[in-house]
TrEMBL record:
Signal peptide residues on this chain, from the entry's feature table: none
Record-given protein name: PE domain-containing protein
InterPro entries: PE-PGRS_N (IPR000084), PGRS_rpt (IPR048996), PPE_sf (IPR038332)
PE domain residues: 1-70
Pfam families (UniProt xref): PE, PGRS
Length: 325
């Protein structure tokens, strides 16, 4: 808008008279006067806008500074109190009384740290890589808290196991996904098992098996099996679902197509709860060879987990045993 005002200032403020008579001169002077008045008002409005924006920015900065000042002492007090509480427990048992476990670093296969003995969630396992291709296990909770998620496996390596839920209350962590086949005619990693619940909580789901994909290392490769689901709480809770087998693309070899992998078994419930669903087996690969090769055998679905002893339903397995031609 400022640029438009500057561009239009010269032609509208200096309107030429249409003729030499007095009426034309008076009309031109009138329009020029209005234009000059508009430019003056526009300049004042632009100045007001700039001052308003500056004031708002200053207010936002002051508010953010006040928030930081107020938060810092409270955070410091909290950290100090937890430090005093957790120091003896960490010295004796290597884990805090209160707090979440640390996550494992990606690409290291490091396991997640265990949660606090009284309350806290387990940390997630790090993904596999380098010298430790398998995914790290999720950390387990203490009395109350959820287990950490297992880390994904590196190429051809298994996913990490999910951490166990709290002894009193909490869900088991999900298992990590298995790694893709690392080379042609290789096998994908198995999905990690789900963590178990304690007294009250649901079991963690099993991780999916390593899948083929992206057109890389797919020739004759076998996909990974799904991980088993974790068991539900002893008193109450559902079993975790079994992980699905890895995805088998339609890739064939000169001999035969690769077979599918099995799905993971569902976890069992305790006293009250439903059993976890079994994971799906994968389809076998196709063999569209002009000579007429045999397609791969589909993988078997996982068994559903048992329902609770007092109340609950068992969940059925999903079976995929088709021959793909």
């Amino acid at each position: 808008m400022s640029a438009a005002n500057v561009f239009a200032a010269a032609p509208i403020e200096g309107v030429l008279a249409a003729g030499a008579d007095e009426v034309s001169v008076a009309v031109a002077a009138l329009f020029s006067g209005h234009a000059q008045a508009y430019q003056s008002v526009s300049a004042r409005a632009a100045l007001f806008h700039a001052q308003l924006v500056s004031t708002l920015n200053a207010g936002a900065s002051a508010y953010a500074g006040a928030e930081a000042v107020n938060a810092s002492p409270l955070q410091a007090v909290q950290d100090g109190v937890l430090g005093v509480i957790n120091a003896p427990a960490e010295a004796l048992w290597g884990r805090p009384l209160i707090g979440n476990g640390a996550d494992g670093l990606a690409g290291t296969g490091a396991s997640g740290g265990d949660g606090g003995i009284l309350i806290g969630n387990g940390g997630a396992g790090g993904s596999g890589g380098g010298a430790h291709p398998g995914g790290g296990n999720g950390g387990s909770a203490g009395l109350i808290g959820n287990g950490g998620t297992g880390g994904a496996g590196g190429p051809g390596a298994a996913g990490g196991r999910g951490g166990n839920g709290g002894w009193l209350y909490g869900n088991g962590g999900a298992g990590g996904q298995g790694g893709a086949p690392p080379a042609n005619y290789a096998i994908g990693g198995v999905g990690g098992a789900g963590g178990n619940a304690g007294l009250w909580g649901n079991g963690g789901a099993g991780g999916q098996g390593g899948s083929q994909g992206g057109g890389i290392n797919e020739l004759g490769s076998l996909v990974g099996a799904g991980g088993n689901g974790g068991h539900g709480g002893l008193l109450f809770g559902d079993g975790g679902a079994g992980g699905n087998a890895g995805t088998n693309r339609q890739i064939y070899t000169a001999q035969a197509a690769p077979d599918g992998a099995a799905g993971g078994h569902g976890g069992n419930a305790g006293l009250i709860g439903n059993g976890g669903a079994g994971g799906n087996g994968s389809f076998g690969g196709t063999a569209p060879d002009p000579v007429g090769r045999v397609g791969g055998i589909g993988g078997v679905g996982g068994h559903g987990g048992n329902g609770g002893l007092l109340y609950g339903e068992a969940d059925g397995a999903l079976d995929v045993t088709l021959h793909r031609l």
